Amino acid sequence: MALELFGHPFSSYTWKALIPLYETGTPFTFRDISGDQHPENEAAFLAHWPVGKFPLLVDDGVPVMESSVIVEHVAPGLIPADRDAAREVRMLDRIFDNHVMAPMQAVVAEHLPFLTPAPDEARVARAREALAKAYRWLDARLTGRAWAAGDDFTLADCAGAPALFYADWVLPIEEGLATLKAYRARALARPSVARCVEEARPYRNFFPLGAPDRD
Fold first, then answer.
1. Which of 41, 64, 203, 211 stands the most exposed, by the fewest C-beta atoms within 10 Å?
2. pLDDT tens digits for 71-95?
3. Whole-prediction pTM value?
4. What pLDDT, in 10s, does the model give residues 31-45?
């Protein structure tokens, strides 16, 4: 299949789609959406998906939207065949997206001048508290597991790696949550994830809170 992935190298959800492609060694063309730098990519992207939310996969001309669906499309083996195991994977995928990625992005959005003239500290505090609650839950849930849902790298890890990479920049995982800290480190060391980290490195100045001097 001829695959094109539209996204941005610094985007957490683009990482989520890139990781399974790198995991499986699937050939694809990356179409970088960087505004004025690649107008032809942006035009093609919007022609397929006028909503304008990336990543977007195009498979032989057929658009596939939403990062979780893209992961399953390109790497169905990252979803277990066992019904109970698959439920855990899909549940954690949604938890990482909705309860780690979403509050992280809420904090980031408060520091984007074109969205808000000044951060609303009450909203920032609520988002960080939501992250703290998710961290504590995940630390307990991941105990005894090599990867998010068990012994195997799955869709849940495609979501967990980028979510925790950026969330820890917004609210560092506290030292007492050793399981979650170790999981984040293990995920960032995996070759498919490490490649995303390196490809995004030139864009760190885009992070509105200031990217930490680590990772």
1. 203
2. 999 999 999 999 999 999 999 999 9
3. 0.96
4. 999 767 788 999 999
Instruction: Give 98-140 as a 3 state SS string.
Output: HHHHHHHHHHHHHCCCCCCCCCCHHHHHHHHHHHHHHHHHHHH
C-alpha closest to that of 94 among 160, 3, 49: 160
Pair of tokens at residue 28 = 């694809």
Could you tell me the two tokens for 161? Answer: 């790696």
Report pLDDT digits (tens) over 162-178.
Answer: 999 999 999 999 999 99
Give CA–CA dist 6/202, Å, rounded.
Answer: 18
Alpha carbon distance 198, 200 (integer Å): 5
Pair of tokens at residue 58? 């195009």
